[in-house]
Amino acid sequence: MRFEDAAVTLGGRTIWSRVNLEVGRGEFVAVLGPNGVGKSTLIKAMLGILPLAEGRVTVLGRPAGGSGKDIGYLPQRRNFDPNLRVRGIDIVRLGSDGDRWGLPFPGGASLFAGAKAQQARIDEVIELVGAGSFAHRPIGQVSGGEQQRLLIAQALVRRPQMLLLDEPLDSLDLPNQASVAALISEISSEYGITVIIVAHDVNPILSYLDGVVYVARGGAVSGPPERVITSETLSTLYETPIEVLRTSDGRMVVVGQPEAPAHHADRHTGHPR
User: Fold this and answer.
1) What pLDDT, on the 0 to 100 scale, is given for residue 271?
2) Which of 6, 22, 23 is nearest to 14 (CA)?
3) Do 45 and 52 form a contact (C-beta atoms < 8 A)?
4) What residue spans in the chain does CATH classification 3.40.50.300 cover?
5) Which CA distances in Å does 2 have to 14, 48, 175, 190?
6) Proportion of the chain above pLDDT 90, given as a percent
7) What predicted TM-score, i.e. pTM, was given to this entire model?
8) 3-state SS assignment for residue 252
9) Cα distance between residue 140 and residue 40, in whole Å
10) Quick one: pLDDT at residue 98?
11) Phi, psi dihedrals of residue 93, rounded to the nearest 5°
């Protein structure tokens, strides 16, 4: 995936510009930065949902929007109604046949060619994400971490080469953040899938990352975490003094006027992310 002198404009406002970055195949990369800087906008530009005002972006060697089923996309976390009776396995099935509304017709599996192979793949990804014990329960009655595992399985059904995950750890408690982060890292390394994850807090995923993209002040920097998340680099990006500290347990804290990646404001602001 590569951005070259890229810019996005929404409603006459430039969200970011002159963005140049590259993510290699099979890498696990986090997109970081405070609210409102256009992190989710970056993901939408990769998907071809938002056109660039300038420059270009290529994904898996093709222009944005041309990679189709080779990309698994998990949008920002959905809240499922506790009374929703749709099973987890049916949510996963949406990743396979969402263009047919996802839910199979009663007794109609034989209508679709390869129905057995499709079901085998659904079962395979459910086991891959460790969801076998709760996949047949209503989605509204499983925990937030379990829901995320099912949604990751949904994104994996079509054997993508790339996963784009928009805040998959948001609203999860620390143990679930750690377990979902470990799962994503394992999938990336074992299957060679490129993973780009938008995150509020880098700490749960820091040890797994190959690189980070830090978005701020209408621009972005990218590279290995130890090179990007530094006082010098972030001070240059924000054009104000920023200090990066490490706590005794190894967690990273960004101190300064802008919001740190571990301390963000309410996510329901309506601003670009």
Assistant:
1) 43
2) 6
3) yes
4) 1-67+161-273
5) 20, 13, 33, 23
6) 70
7) 0.86
8) strand
9) 26
10) 56
11) -60, -30
Give the whole-angstrom CA distance, residue 249 versus residue 48.
Answer: 40
Distance CA 216, CA 233 (A): 11
Q: Quote the CA–CA distance of 250 and 206 in Å, as a whole number.
A: 10
Listed residue (109, 150, 145) closest to 127, CA to CA: 150
Which is it for strands 194-198 and 211-216: parallel, antiparallel or unpaired?
A: unpaired
Write the CA distances from 55 to 29, 210, 218, integer angstroms: 22, 25, 15
Measured CA angle at 150 (ends 148, 154), to 5 deg: 110
* AA letter at 264: H
Q: Domain 1-67+161-273 classified CATH 3.40.50.300?
A: yes
Q: What number of residues does the chain have?
A: 273
Per-residue pLDDT, averaged over 129-136, amounts to 97
CA atoms 223, 229, 233, 234: torsion sign = positive
Alpha-carbon 219 to chain mean position: 20
Contact 170, 79 (CB under 8 A): no
